[in-house]
Design a protein that fits this description.
Length: about 325
């Protein structure tokens, strides 16, 4: 018998699916989306944990074998001794691929047509019809830096809209196995990019883009990966989109790129501070769209259904001794 502890909002249909799996005993508790201490007698015999953050007294989970988290990001797991204890950890990559990819498309259209300028004119009662309000994204070249689930679904949508897709990734682009995703979405075989670049080819990748989309996790390796040098490699008409993590781009480098016209503008859903201070200069650039980390979030209409689906599938796989979906590597869990 495997004991499953659920520290998440309940999705009733999925909970029923979970309870029907043979040889599992399910315990649900009032959810909490941050760290907390849980009673040792409650958690001591649990084998599988579904949560946003594990308890601070994870050491009391003597029999824990698998942790399923409800986010794609996993920095909350660093320095918890998980690797040393050989605990398997799975994230929720794939759950928000669809809404974030749709945000990417929406931002490219809005930036290309200067929708902020159109809205400013509307608010001021100004009738103006310049060419910049009438541009299209078909035929544009979009660069996806990081080709995981979000990058692959963005590539699928972009290709369907007639865009040219270039990809830069640290790993070879090809089929993905044991990753969560919806049928008909993404690029599971890795065949959509028109061109693929590897580490060391950043100049060649960046120099011809109309849009750069960041789609990689934040790790020790990737923090600050987008420097002034790389931003200067983009054409001055290019736009930068960051739905991944704010600190992937060096903050001062982004500000200089916008102030000095190295890039045409940006759309930012992830930030350097939470919340972003009202006096931060990024709020005031007329060519920047700022959204409050909502491109894919727990309030997305299908989030709870999808994140529970990952959990249920992984419990089924765990009980059957099969490979888990979205299992993180030791290097990932150490932030490398």
């Amino acid at each position: 018998m495997k004991n499953i502890l659920i520290d998440m909002d309940v999705h009733a249909v999925s909970l029923e699916r979970l309870q029907k799996i043979p040889n599992v005993r399910v315990t649900t508790i009032e959810p909490f989306d941050d760290f907390r201490i849980l009673p040792a007698d409650l958690i001591g015999n649990k084998h599988f944990l579904f949560c946003s953050c594990p308890p601070t007294n994870l050491s009391d989970m003597k029999e824990i074998e698998v942790i399923q988290i409800a986010s794609a990001g996993y920095s909350q797991l660093f320095n918890l001794g998980i690797v040393e204890r050989k605990i398997k950890v799975c994230n929720a990559a794939g759950v928000n691929d669809i809404p974030i990819a749709e945000w990417n498309i929406a931002m490219m259209v809005n930036l290309a047509r200067d929708m902020r300028g159109i809205i400013r004119n509307q608010e001021s009662g100004v009738w103006e019809r310049p060419a910049r309000f009438q541009r299209e994204i078909r035929g544009s070249k979009v660069g996806v830096w990081g080709y995981g689930g979000i990058g692959r679904e963005t590539a699928r949508l972009a290709k369907n809209m007639g865009m040219v897709v270039h990809v830069l990734d640290a790993q070879p682009v090809g089929p993905r196995k044991n990753f969560y995703g919806f049928a008909g979405t993404g690029d599971h075989e890795g065949v959509l990019p028109d061109r693929v670049f590897s580490v060391g080819q950043e100049k060649e990748f960046l120099s011809g883009l109309d849009f750069l989309i960041l789609s990689m996790p934040l790790t020790q390796r990737t923090e600050g990966i987008v420097t002034e040098e790389f931003l200067k490699m983009l054409p001055p008409h290019a736009f930068v989109l960051n739905p991944a993590r704010g600190p992937l781009i060096k903050e001062e480098a982004l500000l200089n790129a916008l102030r000095k016209g190295w890039i045409a503008g940006a759309a930012l859903d992830t930030h350097y501070y939470y919340p972003m201070p009202a006096d931060h200069p990024l709020w005031r650039f007329p060519n920047v769209i700022m959204t409050p980390h909502i491109s894919g979030s727990t309030l997305s209409p299908r989030f709870l259904e999808r994140v529970w689906d990952v959990c249920v599938q992984n419990v089924q796989r765990y009980v059957a001794g099969e490979p888990l979906l979205n299992q993180l590597t030791a290097n990932q869990l150490m932030g490398r």
